[in-house]
Amino acid sequence: MSRLPSTGGVEAATEELLLGLSRTSAPEVRALLDVYRATLAEPPLVAVAGRVSAGKSTLVNALVGARAAPTAARETTAVLTTYRFGVPARAEATLRDGSSRSVPLGPDGPVLGDVGPEALAHLTVHLQEAPLRRFSIMDTPGLGSAMTTNSERTELALATGATQGVRPDVVLYVVRDAFREDDVSFLQRFAQAWSSVGDVPGQSGVLAVLSHADNYGTGPWGPEDPVREAQRSAAELPGRHGILTGAVAVSGLLAETTRTGRLREQDLRLLRRLREVDDADLQYAGLLGSVPGIPQEELEGLLGMVGAYGLRHGRRHADTSAELLDWIEEQSGLRPLERLLEQTLGTAGGLARVDSVLGEITRRAGRERWGADVESTLEAALASPAFHPLDQWRAVTELRRVHPNHELIPVLEALQREPGTVPAPLAVGREADPLALAGRYQALAGAARTGAEAQAARVLSRSMILLATRGR
Ligand SMILES: Nc1nc2c(ncn2[C@@H]2O[C@H](COP(=O)(O)OP(=O)(O)O)[C@@H](O)[C@H]2O)c(=O)[nH]1
Ligand SMILES: [Mg+2]
Fold it and tell me: How far apart are CA 460 and CA 454, in angstroms?
């Protein structure tokens, strides 16, 4: 059963369409269609992208609630890994030749043994962590800066998961310190890898994560609170970069520490003992890793879990472990990220997935000659009223991209929310008559300035006709 939000019946219609197609298809096509149906029934996919050392794997661990992804030290061996919900916990390696085999899952992640990095395409790790029931999450290795030439297409596709054929519903793009112009080109290359899979419209969201919030700006020892500064900077990002649908400041380190239950009683005691140390001494100690009377490795261990920011401020919130955990959770910024993620997956995620899968099936049917009857069945189904919400979604997505403030956007959005009624922005006087509105939009389509506007008007005209003929 699908866990996606309501998508105006499109998902049920898609399931029915694919089932119908597979009944009349050749065995190899049927097998493919079954894979697509299974894909649609799975939780949506979140891809975490960004440069090496941006904090991607740390964030993955925080969101999953387990130290599943190796961080920092083992970055050089990083390989694209998707974490999915599954029982029992297990790992599977997919090789570049398309075959796959199960590999042991050790405490530090999959153990590759004799599977060489050059043979490996990606890993899938099944875990029982509750957040993975809501979404699967893909940890990507950072893209190199030179992955633009044709010969590197394969690497690019491998590094973004494009070879898996399952398009991410949301991209969390992790940056450290700042979102720069070359991050835009990085994101474009990320999208480019996907476009080599097919020209499916983009995923439902690209959220920027300003990581290392605890070290932001003047840093943990500076006069300003770095976390607040990072939050202010993050809030400005979507307005500045059209490619972003949202942005949040996060300290992945603090989030990983609370969400994976790393802190022990002795860490709490150690933090309390640090209350007597003044800031300058603590900063110095933080750099050198020592405070008189406290073993260096204990201090380093604590620093590795809460960072200098947690050391400096956390010690004032360490009366009880509950108080400390609440404080860390609050500073980490993970909850606002989860809310934004939930919202992004919830509003458009379902339709984006259906769109992506149906687009791919349509292309393959043509390219791989699945048969004229398959193609005509697909075409007829997609043109039927059951799939009209998908056309509305496509139209509004494209309109938002081309004319972000277009007056038809709220109309299309209202129709998606309440498919059975004339949208509130229109429901005034005689204009509320759907057939009159259909005519008006038809005329607008003819006079439109751009393809996006024309498409939106055509789709709206049909929405009104469908409204007028409902129940007749
Ligand atoms: N202080 C601080 N350190 C972080 C944060 N996020 C990640 N790190 C550290 O930065 C290093 C790189 O993180 P990692 O998640 O491996 O980056 P990746 O290469 O993007 O996967 C690790 O040592 C992390 O502990 C953060 O928010 N604050
Ligand atoms: Mg990593």
Answer: 10
CA neighbor of 257 nearest in space, from 329, 348, 162: 329
The whole model's pTM is what? 0.78
pLDDT recorded at residue 354: 87
* Pocket-testing residue among 60, 253, 313, ligand 1, by greatest number of atoms within 8 A of Cβ: 253
Say yes or no: CB of residue 72 within 6 Å of ligand 1.
Answer: yes
Assign 169 to helix, strand or coil.
coil
Q: Per-domain residue ranges for the chain?
A: 9-41+348-383, 42-251, 256-332, 385-472
Question: What are 314's two structure tokens?
Answer: 């956390």
| Token duo for residue 29 | 């096509």
Mean pLDDT by 10 residues, the chain (472 residues): 53 92 90 87 89 93 94 67 94 92 89 86 94 93 61 71 75 92 85 61 76 96 96 94 91 97 94 90 73 84 94 96 96 97 76 85 91 92 94 92 90 85 67 85 95 97 91 60
Rounded CA gap, 57 and 107, in Å?
Answer: 15
For atom 13 of ligand 1, which residue has the closest CA? Answer: 55
Nearest atom within ligand 1 for CA of residue 71: 16
42-251 carries CATH number 3.40.50: yes
Which of 350, 347, 327 minimizes the C-alpha distance to 339?
Answer: 347
Residue with tokens 């866990």: 3
Q: Are 282 and 294 in contact (CB under 8 A)?
A: no
Contact 45, 93 (CB under 8 A): no
Distances (CA, A) of 292 to 276, 277, 319: 12, 10, 22
pLDDT at 2: 33
DSSP-derived secondary structure letter, 129: -
Q: Is 362 in the pocket of ligand 1 (CB under 6 A)?
A: no
Residue 96 · residue 119 · CB < 8 Å: yes
Ligand 1 close to Cβ of residue 75 (< 6 A) = yes
Helices then strands, counting H and E runs in the chain, come out as 19, 11
Residue nearest to atom 28 of ligand 1 (CA): 212
Of ligand 1's listed atoms, the one at least distance from the Cα of 251 is: 27
Q: Which residue has the least CA distance to atom 22 on ligand 1?
A: 72
Sign of the four-CA dihedral 112, 115, 119, 123: negative
> Which residue's alpha carbon is at the smallest distance from atom 11 of ligand 1?
72
